[in-house]
Amino acid sequence: MRAVCWNGTHDVRIERVPDPEILNPRDAIVRVTLTAICGSDLHLYDGYIPTMKAGDILGHEFMGEIVEIGAGVQNLRKGDRVVVPFNIACGRCYFCTGKMWSCCDNSNPNAWMAETAYGHSPAGLFGYSHMLGGYAGGQAEYVRVPFADTGPLKIHNGMRDEEVLFLSDIFPTGYQAAENCGIREGDTIAVWGCGPVGQFAIRSALMLGAERVFAIDHFPQRLDLARQGHPGQFHEDDRIETINFDEDEVYDHLMSATGGRGPDACIDAVGLESHGTTVDALFDRIKVASLLATDRIHVLRQAARTVRKNGTISIPGVYGGFADKFPIGAIFGKGITIRCGQTHVHNYMQPLLERIEKEEIHPSFIISHRYNLDEAPDAYKNFRYHQNECRKVVLCP
Known about the structure:
There is one protein chain. The chain has 397 residues and is an alpha/beta fold. The chain has helices at 41-45, 94-97, 111-118, 161-164, 170-179, 196-207, 220-227, 250-257, 279-289, 298-306, 328-333, 349-357, 376-385; strands at residues 2-6, 12-16, 28-37, 56-57, 61-69, 81-84, 87-88, 124-125, 142-145, 153-154, 188-192, 212-217, 240-244, 265-268, 312-315, 337-340, 369-372, 393-396. Strands 3, 5, 6, 9, 10, 17 and 18 form a 7-stranded mixed sheet that branches. A 6-stranded parallel sheet has the order 13-12-11-14-15-16, with helices on both faces. Strands 2-1-4 form a 3-stranded antiparallel sheet, with helices on one face. Strand 15 (312-315), helix 11 and strand 16 form a beta-alpha-beta unit. Helix 5 crosses helix 6. The protein starts with a strand and ends with a strand.
């Protein structure tokens, strides 16, 4: 079969690889009908995530048709159309039975690697390094899905792939980020990063009752999209205000807009490759270039300085290693709560599917580019270097 394979920093190729096979009675083989490049795939593309190997198949956002199934899977049949969550969960361990799916104890066969770095291992992920399982990803014609009786969500009603694909990751990730803010009616939320996860976090914050949302970025087209507002609406929403950090000082703007109190919660939808022109952002670049740190946390520092006292910082953006100048003083002094982690996707797929079915949101609004699988190397390059125009790429095998 054809698959999108990682071969080093900024080196992605289409290669012929062996077809996947059933290895465990709880496996299924999915013929991929639509897949996507996630913003977090760019961290792999840029070489920031360790334990990748040449030839690894990329992709953790995908859906398709069940074409083969293990004897232990009783809830799916050949021909079923499914969306697959990006994290892999056994459904039976302490964490899975507690609905903490992204912390599954049994789905990472290389748990020792993560334990060495983090103390414990999170769940395995599709197409996201050997430290997180070494599983082949879904940017391919076919993919093996472990624990298929636990994760995939059946799509019954003939909805278009583009409307439901993002239940695999970015819609639940944006929603969980907003939910982690503990939003109450009338709250003000600030969202750093207007990429795909940030866009869904903005819309989810409104769904959950936020009165005002500030969208922060420096790409004009992404800020324009953020202003389109509430799901289903395609005109500017006066509850959403945008800040271009190249033109405006974020802290001053938010203090002025909130009477000096600060937002009730801040969402860091940027993660380890944050940009900025301030002294600390430049310092981060030097530290990472010197191999004295791995993650650039300019956004996290800005959020810690800006959020109101006793407020919350929610982090859906991916961090992978170690950072310098972590703002522990502001976090302690202001009593800030930080909530973060990989998304427990399984908890959100069905309820968010119901919101899509009710047309409360049309997730395909985020797609800017469509490519064939063979064009993946160009798609990665375009997504990486033209983020103003290119906000979300889908690939059709």
